[in-house]
């Protein structure tokens, strides 16, 4: 081999060495999250329809009320499917929100029964709660028309709430725990007092 061939081979080796390797694509979702239709709690809810007591225990409302609420909020929370993935249905969104409100579980814990990522749950649950508030506020949050402007006398309202935070030792069986920034575990008790 002459000098020109050696230089050409070394140059080719340098080019190949410096060429960026193609990175393997990482999955944007975990495999089991992509099987939402198969593993989701929506299948359980469909089975629970045949046992009204269990249905009410799971969602904290009967099927008739659930379907009425679903029909009211569907226009506000329904999303369109995209080329990349199917949208999370309004039924799944409402069901996981009601489970969150009923159990107080974390998003990380709910992801296993709902087969929805915690990041998506962090968007879905507040959106659904806002939608529930919007459709029910006229019927259920009627404020007294007799309130005087600039008055501190709010009679005939919902009543007074008393909140108390109690320091507790961590226990795996307690569902609604609040982890503070300092790492302590608290439970928040809310009690309703009589109106003034």
Write structural notes for this entry.
It comes from Operophtera brumata (Winter moth). This is Putative nuclease HARBI1. This protein is mostly helical and 196 residues long. The chain folds into two domains: 30-142, no CATH class; 157-196, no CATH class. The protein is 49% helix and 10% strand. It contains eight helices and three strands, in the order H-H-H-H-H-H-H-H-E-E-E. It has helices at residues 3-18, 36-39, 41-48, 52-59, 63-77, 90-103, 107-114, 118-140, and strands at residues 160-168, 178-179, 185-193. It has a three-stranded antiparallel beta sheet, with no helix packed on it. Helix 5 packs across helix 6 (90-103) and helix 5 (63-77) crosses helix 8 (118-140). Mean pLDDT is 74; it is low at 152-161 and 172-181.
